[in-house]
Structures are given as structure tokens and as C-alpha cells.
Design goal:
Keywords: Oxidoreductase. This is Arsenate reductase. Belongs to the ArsC family. GO terms for molecular function: arsenate reductase (glutaredoxin) activity. It holds the Pfam family ArsC. The termini are close together. Strands 2-1-3-4 form a four-stranded mixed β-sheet, with helices on both faces. By secondary structure, the chain is α+β, with helices and mostly antiparallel strands. The protein has one domain: Glutaredoxin (3-Layer(aba) Sandwich). β1, α1 and β2 form a beta-alpha-beta unit. α1 packs across α5.
Length: 120
């Protein structure tokens, strides 16, 4: 499994602590440094079963500058959101854990991290 983190994020650090305590085998991706491509974001969204606006941190300064809260949330708007997430990775909700079974979770709670662990 892989976990996308921002080391400055307390929820990311908590997820890593739990993964370590459970002896999980995982790879860390510091997504602000190793920025996911639009294609990778599409893949993670498919694994999450979510839309890009579902994983966008709309409270970030760059989100306010871009005006994302006013953007449409229809199928035709999807690529605009994905491109924004790739161009401004700080907008991506974290941590995101991709499980070996092909699914993913946004691991903001202990329950979500444990869910990912259960998926392998």
C-alpha cells in the first residue's frame, strides 16, 4: 500500500503511527514534493469512488485564489478540478492510502486507516 502525506499534517503523522503500530507494509509518498500527475489523480479518484471536489481542500489560500468553491460540480467540470489538484497539490485532502486490493481511503480518522489495513 502507499500513503500520500504532507509531513506537516497531524492526521498524516497519526496515520503513519497507526500503520507502524500494526506492522503494515507501506510506501510513503510526500505528494507536495512528488506531485501526482492528473492521470494518477484520476486513478486514485476511481479507487476512492469519489469526485475531485470531494478531495479538494477548499479552505486553502490557493483554493480561495482560484475560486474553487464557485466551480461547477458536474461531469463536465471534472477535468478542471483534476488539473487544479495536479497543479496545486496542497489542495489534495490527506492522507490518502491506496490499498493492495485496488481501493483507497482518505485516512483522516483511525477508523479509515484501519479500514485500509483490512483491505491489505
Amino acid at each position: 500500500m502507499e500513503i500520500w502525506i504532507n509531513p506537516a499534517c497531524s492526521k498524516c503523522r497519526s496515520a503513519l503511527t497507526l500503520l507502524d503500530a500494526e506492522g503494515a507494509d507501506y510506501t510513503v509518498r510526500k505528494y507536495l514534493e512528488d506531485v501526482p500527475s492528473a492521470e494518477e489523480i484520476r486513478g486514485v479518484l476511481d479507487r476512492l469512488g469519489l469526485e475531485p471536489w470531494d478531495i479538494t481542500r477548499t479552505g486553502e489560500a490557493v483554493a480561495k485564489e482560484l475560486g474553487v468553491k464557485e466551480w461547477g460540480r458536474e461531469a463536465g467540470d471534472r477535468e478542471r478540478w483534476i488539473e487544479a489538484l495536479s497543479a496545486h497539490p496542497k489542495l489534495i485532502q490527506r492522507p490518502i492510502i491506496t490499498a493492495d486490493d485496488g481501493t483507497a481511503v482518505v485516512g483522516r480518522s483511525e477508523e479509515a486507516v484501519r479500514d485500509a489495513l483490512g483491505r491489505g
